[in-house]
Amino acid sequence: MKKLRQIVEAAFVIGGYRALGLLPMRVASDLGGAVARFVGPKLRVSARARANLRRFLPELGEAGIERTVREMWDNLGRTAAEYPHLTRMTVFEPGADIDVAGVEHVDAAKRAGKPIIFFAAHLANWELAGLAAARHGTPVHLVYREANNRHVETLFREGRGAFAAGLIPKGASGARLAMQALKAGKHLGMLLDQKMNDGIAVPFFGVEAMTAPALAILAQRFDCAVLPVRVERVTDGPRFRVTVEAPLPVPRGGDKAADARALMAAVNARMEEWIRARPGQWLWLHRRWPNP
Fold first, then answer.
1. CA of 53: how far to CAs of 50, 155, 272, in Å?
2. Which residues are bridge partners to 255 per DSSP?
3. Residue 241 forms beta bridges with which residues?
4. Rounded distance, CA 3 to CA 6, Å?
5. pTM
6. Contact, 217 vs 182, CB < 8 A?
7. Could you tell me the pLDDT band of residue 157, with boundaries at 50, 70 and 90?
8. What is the DSSP-derived secondary structure letter of residue 210?
9. pLDDT in tens, 174-196
10. Band of pLDDT at residue 113, cut at 50, 70 and 90
11. Alpha helices of 136-277 — where are they, by DSSP H?
């Protein structure tokens, strides 16, 4: 039964992917946003988003929370519908779909001979961070969570593989691949806003949240530049801004565990800043925090 369900699910996802790819990018984005905006707030899972918003952004009020939930679903629907168009998006040219700022931080790290770990959050269309890096001539090995459905996973690998230097699944085997890449002077891209049950407790929105420490451990071991990458949807678009921010200092106080926690606290603080600025563009559906 599970195998059949996965086949049906994959057929639906792949069929939708191919159909959306036949539409103009703006039409596909608008359609994905409209459908998700209508259906998503009615789904049971949206209760988690509302609970998270009440807990961490209570100043929005109930009307603001509902508006943010609709915006979240709109962004999620657009992001999914834009997926077939990723490699067609324009970067580094007049009137491009993606405006990029902060490339001087990338160039400085490369001149210094440092491998780079880029980190981003599930904000706006988060896939664009890796795409922009590739178009800049700095392709990254993307660390990601494999899809539960292996048929859908094939589709994701096809899309990301078109611009990534490599794809590294999370887990023990992925950790070895990440170390091999950095040792060879290659660069990594990570999304770091999800919960990791066996991670370390680090503040996020003022609450201790289990956080993956891999970025800190790798940065310390391979003397990496740690570059925050903020992705924003700046119009109903699709039109985006990707900003590479100044590198975060990598603490080296002698206590590796304390240093790792300090760096991950800085990472979480930076992502929190981005999310507070554009709460409707973040995926509030995560089980990111322990229950109050």
1. 5, 32, 13
2. none
3. 99, 232
4. 5
5. 0.92
6. no
7. confident
8. E
9. 889 999 999 999 999 999 999 88
10. very high
11. 150-161, 172-183, 214-222, 256-277
